[in-house]
Amino acid sequence: MRFLLIEDNVSLARATVDRLSLDGHVIDHAVCLADADSYIATADYDLILLDIMLPDGDGRSFLKRHRDALGSTPVIATTARSEVSDRVGILDLGADDYITKPFDFSELEARCRAVLRRRGGGASNIKILGDVRFDSLSGTLRVGDNTLHLRNRELRLFEIFAAAPEQIFSKSKLLDRLFPYDEEASENAIEVYVGRLRRHLQGSRAEIITVRGLGYRLSIE
């Protein structure tokens, strides 16, 4: 998954990026609203982590603009304010959740998972795809009697396919979702990870199909 972190505290941002990157997520970091606007204009995100107090304005103004423009990307607000009225105001502006600073990273990770589950229309980390059982929390695929543990990028790639079976994803779109701007990667890397997932899915009714000239889609028989 690709996240946008909008946070001006450099040490907190670095720690957050390091922690979420361990889970295989791609994190872009904006230190101000101007940078955040630039990121939003050039990339699609699965989740936005939004600090409210920023050097060039209030994060709530960014949130309002995002929702007024019909932006549907989930937003978790991070705030040092603990008053109920502040939290209610943030949620009423369109935030999907909030977390109060200082926060524990395990709680942040859990809130990210919960928001992404709701976005996908589910209340569980487990998804059944034909005869395949996918657990995004443990990072496992169960095919028949075999349970396979996915590596980080395999996991994130399969999450993309599992969230939208039959939807076609181009190589460039998948590349954008799996790799940060500062990491050199070619579309050949996508072919490698797709090949690994195909091997994991052998013998099941789930298959990643190549759509010539367009990309890949997950098909369930």
Question: How would you explain this protein's 3D organization?
Answer:
There is one protein chain. The protein has 221 residues and is α/β, with parallel strands linked by helices. It has 2 domains: 2-119, Rossmann fold (3-Layer(aba) Sandwich); 126-220, Arc Repressor Mutant, subunit A, CATH 1.10.10. The chain has helices at residues 10-21, 33-42, 59-68, 84-92, 105-119, 152-163, 171-178, 187-201, and strands spanning 2-6, 26-30, 47-51, 53-54, 57-58, 75-79, 97-100, 126-129, 132-135, 140-143, 146-149, 206-211, 215-220. It has a 5-stranded parallel sheet, with helices on both faces. Strands 8-9-10-11 form a 4-stranded antiparallel sheet, with no helix packed on it. A two-stranded antiparallel sheet has the order 4-5. The two termini are 26 Å apart. The model has no long low-confidence stretch (mean pLDDT 92).
